[in-house]
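G., the chain you wanted modeled:
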Amino acid sequence: MVTSLAGGPVPGISHHQMLVFLLQFAVLLTSAVVLGRVAMRLRMPAVVGELAAGVLLGPSVFANLMPGLSGWLLPRDPSQTHLLSAVAQLGVLLLVAVTGAHIDLNLFRRRGRTIGYVSAGSVLLPLALGIGLGVVVPAALMGPDTDRTTFALFMGIAVAISALPVIAKTLLDMRLLHRDVGQLIVGSAAVSDIVGWLLLSIVSAMAATGVELGPVVRTVAYLIAVLAFTAVVGRPLARLILARAGSEKHPESGIAVIVVMIIASAAGTHALGMEPILGTFLCGLVIGSLGPAGRKPLSAARPFVMSVLAPLFFATAGLQVDLGALARPEVFLAGVVILAVAVVSKLVGGYAGARMGRLSHGEALAIGAGLNARGVVEIVLATVGLQLGVLTTASYTVIILVAVVTSMMAPPMLRYATRSIPTTSAEIEREREFSAA
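Predicted structure as tokens:
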């Protein structure tokens, strides 16, 4: 029992709750790390294995094979699940901030016209087709408290989004990040992520209040204000805070200040009725724009985020997947159609945009293939949709599968598309610079 400042007793976490939480943490993280390494050995993204850890421990496998032990280790009691969810939420906030910090804003200035064409094609076509899917899919895939318009907009975002972290890692592993086509893929994926998080903030408001003009207009106004604050005040304010904290002389202080900035940004957008993820993403953009002053302390925190908190989040996300839902014919058919539309629309949209930007056939095909990976961002999006009540377990499972399948498709498709693209002297020089860094 803990005593509050007001003098009244505050119930603490029971011995049993703490024991279960610690075991959940250990089992999920161990499983995620082991299966993540197995996935990498099989030349798949680590996130595939980390998600698989949660799927195996969730209702799809573990709960069916050993229901008694599963019910004890992973009970449905909200007071117990919220402990794990809180740690996983912290992990995803820091993960999204790291993603934002890896966006090269200078690339937009150098290749802005081409990136604009590619981004428009790879976002607008999937967004339109995704909204169309959301209008016609069975009502059984909609959350019980959501409306068709909100669900359709959410599906549009889910189909349109790309995953910058997975794409960047894939390009790096394939030694394509230094290539011109790799740089264009990264820049276009950044635009896709930015548009996705901005649209999600509007859909979140619609999910909370319904399709009403007043709340949506208010959210858009808040969104514009947040973007203006980030562009005008955010960067100099962040630089001042880090300088006052003496982050260069005291790295540990820099890490703490960076984390506080990220969490405070999340709290700010959440207080305005938007997703906290939007705040962390914008904060990551600001941190990345500061150069070494911002990236150094964030880089120090990155190993813990990527090796502990992120795998734990993905494993926790996998716990919500119920593969048994795919046994229902309408869910299976909807999943196949959604996956097909997601893949084809991103390929066609990215290819068309690249051709409008006067890129070659091979470059355009590679860009469409690279942008098809949805991975981490799609998983975060699906988790938010489930929390908002926009998705059911069945539709959540479908979107998670889209994230996994598209991420697995990207490497072989990129190998095929780039095999005939010649390497330029500028790309060779860029590779040397990357290697030196």
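The chain is about 80% helix and 0% strand.

Shout if anything looks off.
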